[in-house]
Every structure is written in C-alpha cells, then in structure tokens.
Design goal:
The protein is an alpha/beta fold. The chain has two domains: 183 residues, Rossmann fold, CATH 3.40.50; 66 residues, Orthogonal Bundle (Helicase, Ruva Protein, domain 3), CATH 1.10.8.100. The chain contains eleven helices and nine strands. α5 links the parallel β5 and β6. This is Ribosomal RNA small subunit methyltransferase A.
Length: 270
C-alpha cells in the first residue's frame, strides 16, 4: 500500500505504538450495540482493533485519501463513513437515528481539539462519554483546579459539563511524524442526570463572564469584572474582589452567572 504523507493542514500525527494502542482500546472498552464515533481514524491504529470487537463503527474523516486507504482493509464493511469536518458533523441527527447516547473517541488533530470539545459540549445531552488523545497542554487545561497556571475558561466550561479522568501519558515517539509536544489520553464523561455539581440558568452567561475575567488574567476581579459587578456585590456573593480570576472556583463563577440572570443584568451583555 502506498505510503501516506501526513498533511500539515490537517495536523496529522499518527499513533504507531502497539502497547499504547492496546491500552487505549482497553480504556474505551467498546461494546456491541453501542453507537461509537471515531473522529479522524487516520491509518486505522484504533479503527482496526475496535472493528474486531464490534459490528459497526461510525467514522468522521476530512481527508479523502485516508478514506480511500480504508477501503483496502477487510474490516471496511463494518464502517459507516462520513467524509466530513468533525466540527460541522450532525451528531444530533445520528443520535435521533440510533436512538441511544453516542460514544465519541479519537486521536484528535491538535489544531481542532479545543474547538471540537467545545462544539461537543453543546450536544452534551446526547453523549455518553468522550475519550480523546490530546496535546498535554490542552488536557491539563481541561482538568486544572483553581489556583493553578493551567486553570482558565476551558477548565471551568469543561468541568461544568463533565467529570474528567486522565488515563494515559503518551510520549511524542509514539507518533509518526513525531510531534513537538507530549500527549495525554483523557476521558470526559457527562454528569449523571441526577447529579450536577454546578448549576447556572444559562451557560452562555457563564461563558461570557469567564471569557471577560480571563482576558485580563493578571488583574484582580474588582478590575476585570468591575464593569458588571461592584465590589459590594462581589463581597455579598462571598467572592473576594481582590482575588485574580484563576483563584475563583467554578461554583463561584456560577454564582456570578446566576446573579446576572436573576437581576436581568445579562441582557446588556449577551
């Protein structure tokens, strides 16, 4: 088979380490009759072994040449193929067709990983779980706690929607071509319907507040959010106005969000 030349425009780094691949399959633990969607099957490092365990796998791949390669494999008959951008794929239509929650996984191209995860959060009610290989920096931002350098808007929005588990550290040498960064394989599982650790009336308001706060990361809240919340209001909400954005918990950001909504302040900003 003709060798595939990785395309920089699609940020292609293919997983080649058999031990890492085996561990990832064990973590995903695919079952018959589940709706599994792989983002970017690439050279089929995960696709092939997963097809040995299930009868149908849905794949979303933007690179047509990679889809053509897949046709040469015996497991191709188990694939439902979408030649599409994962950032515009209609996951809701798939959910309606299958009538069950979707499991999404993949070795994500670094250039779309954050955008894709945020896009999938908008469909969180139809997702059972997500298992992704991510650039280490992105994974650390997702799971970061208040007070750490990695904690920011992405941490807050991600943890609002999901419980996250770091599963595996992956070295650059496990890929071809070898990337400049380390990777982490991570699980994101939406909270059970009877358990939501955080609440806001409108996540768009939470997103707006966190974006505003972290645009001026080094400024204290009294300054970064001063146009919306007076020092008196912050104190009333039990939030220290002299703290920086990275020192405020998700619960506290939800308090700010709900205050804006309950007092009809958000209409001036959203």
């Amino acid at each position: 088979m003709k060798k595939h030349i990785p395309l920089k425009k699609f940020s292609q780094n293919f997983l080649i380490d058999s031990n890492i691949i085996k561990k990832i399959i064990e973590f995903i633990n695919p079952k018959l009759n589940e709706t599994l969607v792989e983002i970017g099957p690439g050279l089929a490092a995960l696709t092939r072994p997963i097809c040995h365990l299930i009868n149908e796998l849905i794949i979303v791949e933007i690179d047509y040449s990679l889809l053509e390669r897949l046709k040469k494999f015996s497991f191709y008959s188990k694939l439902v193929v979408f030649h599409q951008d994962a950032l515009t794929f209609d996951y809701l239509e798939l959910f309606n067709k299958k009538n069950q929650l979707i499991r999404v996984f993949g070795n994500l191209p670094y250039n779309i990983s954050t955008s894709l995860i945020l896009y999938l959060f908008q469909k969180i009610q139809i997702i059972k779980d997500m298992n992704f290989m991510l650039q280490k920096e992105v994974a650390e931002r997702l799971i970061a706690s208040p007070g750490s350098k990695s904690y920011g808007r992405l941490s807050i929005i991600a943890q609002y929607y999901c419980n996250m588990t770091k599963l595996l550290n992956v070295s650059p040498k496990c890929f071809r071509p070898v990337p400049q960064v380390d990777s982490i394989f991570i699980n994101l599982t939406p909270y059970a319907t009877n358990y939501y650790p955080y609440f806001t009336h409108d996540v768009r308001v939470l997103s707006y507040i966190t974006n505003l706060a972290f645009q001026k990361r080094r400024k204290i809240l009294r300054h970064s959010l001063g146009q919306i919340f007076s020092e008196k209001v912050l104190i009333t909400l039990d939030i220290n106005p002299r703290l920086r954005p990275e020192n405020i918990s998700i619960l506290q950001y939800c308090k700010l969000s709900n205050y804006m909504i309950e007092n009809n302040i958000y209409q001036n900003y959203i």
